[in-house]
Write a structure and sequence with these properties.
Strand content: 15-25%
Radius of gyration: 31 Å
Distance between the termini: 76 Å
Order of helices and strands: HHHEEHEHEHEEHEHEHEHEEH
CATH architecture of the largest domain: 3-Layer(aba) Sandwich
Number of helices: 11
CATH topology of the largest domain: D-Maltodextrin-Binding Protein, domain 2
Number of strands: 11
Number of domains: 2
Length: 322
Amino acid sequence: MGVGIEFFDREDRDMDFRRLEAFCKVYERLSFSRAGDDLFLSQPTISAHIQTLEKELGARLFDRMGRTVLPTPAGKALYARATDIFRLVDLAKAEVHGLMHRVTGEVILGASTIPAGSLLPGLLAAFLKAYPDVSIRMQTGDSAAITQAVSQGECMLGVVGARPDHAELTATFLCNDELVCVAAPAFSTAATVLPLEDRLAQPWIMREPGSGTRQAMEQALSRAGKDVRELRQAIEVASTQALLACAAAGMGLAVTSRLAAQQLLTRGELVEVALPALRMEREFWCIAHAQRVLFPAARTCHEFLVTRCSRDGCVAPQSKGL
């Protein structure tokens, strides 16, 4: 014969730990008042917890005999399982505490396209060499998309080219990034210094709205009294790689990070176009959710990126094969 505990549906199983803790203390002390003293709760509060628990379970847990309470068969059954639950919780806490002091596990890192392709490869190679028990899963997108991913908890950390205006996010400065205007060597006026108005009338290769590069360019134009809508846009692309390829193909002018363009500039596949009227610079930031606890791997990665960038600035990885 059963002990009389019957669970009806999911909503009936939502007992919380406070009520279970009160129940266990009453069971152990055989007194509502002594249980209240141990838990620093009033006797009416203890009684309310037990009554709610009995209502949820549909079973009487204690027989009241004056000031003494005795557990019913249902109470004995629940106590056995409740102590198992609390032991499992304590074990989980211990394992988490152990994990918190060991740099291991996966870091889900979001990165906008220029940091992902130019800044982070060298930094992450050094990080993984120092912490071989860590693995990194990197998601890429424009700065707006990565900011949203961190805000929604999809990424633990993010490296973006524009400081986000989100109250729930923290942003730590990494380094400055110089933007340059580039074009194919065969572009008709690449080597000529022209007034800004004339440059704006030429075909431009643009990044998509939400890109940190585009945002920095728009801000530079605004400081010069110009609007991005004055540009003659030939094509809009959604990645740095596509922008550089279009520029190298002679489709027009493009603004990008010097980090991203440096190898093509060195090989002569692109040339830098002077825009003396525009001062184009932006910053890279490492972002995280203010309300999310970072486990050691993510926290150590964050500290590593900040420390290395503070020491070395924005340095692109050296490559011989590209």
